[in-house]
Amino acid sequence: MRIAVVNNFYPPRVGGSAHLSESLARGYAARGHEVLVITAEHADAPVDEVAGGVRVVRLPAVKLPETRLAVNFDIAFCARPSLPRRIRELLDRFRPDVIHQHGQFFDLTWATGLWARRNGVPVLLSVHTRLESPSKLYQVVFSLLDRWVVAPFMRRYVPTFVVMDEQMRDYIHTKYRGGISGTVHTPIGVDPDAVRGGDRAVMRQRHGIGDAPVILSTGHVIPLRDRMTLIEAMPAVLARLPETRLVVVGGVYYDAFLRRARELDVEHALIVTGAVPRSDIPHYLAAADIECHDLHGYGFGTASLECMAAGLPVVSAVREDNFGDIKLIDRVNVHLVPPQDPEALAERLVEALNDPVQARSIARAGADLVDANFTMDAVIDKHVDALRRLIPGR
Predict the structure, then answer these.
(1) What average pLDDT does this structure show over 78-92?
(2) Which of 36, 82, 100, 193 is the most buried (most CB within 10 A)?
(3) pTM of the model as a whole
(4) End-to-end CA distance of the chain
């Protein structure tokens, strides 16, 4: 197959969507398929290169200004008068059998979707982020964008959607009805080997943590993962385990949790690293006793699965059936808590930190769950099968 992979986010940009689209693109190439990646330019990355058996073309882009609406995130758009022509040149020359898009609200998605409609090429679309916010004002804005901008594009070229979990399925069918040609159930994929084998001492020495209990919180800080519940749980945790340290690893694009930490006088227990090299992640995972960041009830993302894969117990506010038949079971392979409930979270964190036997049991079960269901090889195979099924005559 000739597969065009489209995502405004692609390494060296960081983030779950970027890393997943790269892993899939390279996985397609490793299985003998010809792959073209179309993405947005980034810093000093080459505008046209071959990496990992994949041709990557980065188109001129404008980075959105840092605003609270864009959660100060590194978002780039390629919209300019020349974009349709550039997309046409690339895809006419490449002649893809199928297009795999990532992200429903990007201009590259819309431009390649319209090209696909004109040329009769099927499209698979992975939705990584729901346009949702805990802020009522921003939720109104996001709902309007979904209804009047994103959904009309979906109805124009009608892609097949990748459903990664039950909440994403509900979101897609609610927001984009009339623009769905079908759905494919494929969970998130992670590479367990990439997060295992860290040295517990490395980050503890770097940050002067010593033997203190460590709560790790991974991933970018954005409104949907704002760490506010976690900070508000910390006074009760510190009252019983005063040496505990909370280590937040990831870019800070929404800093309300820092102000709240000062208000609650728990700032001394907080270590905020910002974004770190990918190679450091296994050491942070090995240094921690427990991980916690998905607390709004919006799902269970790549970072949480990577923590489980590394053998780290995870606390999350997520549905047991988040992945359908693949069950997340409280106190068996994960710790489940109510959304945005600091008291319940504090109790569970203290319980987990005080019971190393239970922690080891949950860690083993979590790693086994990932190995059985979420490895990147298995997910790539499912995507390849889905792409093949979309092509007429296959």
Answers:
(1) 94
(2) 100
(3) 0.80
(4) 11
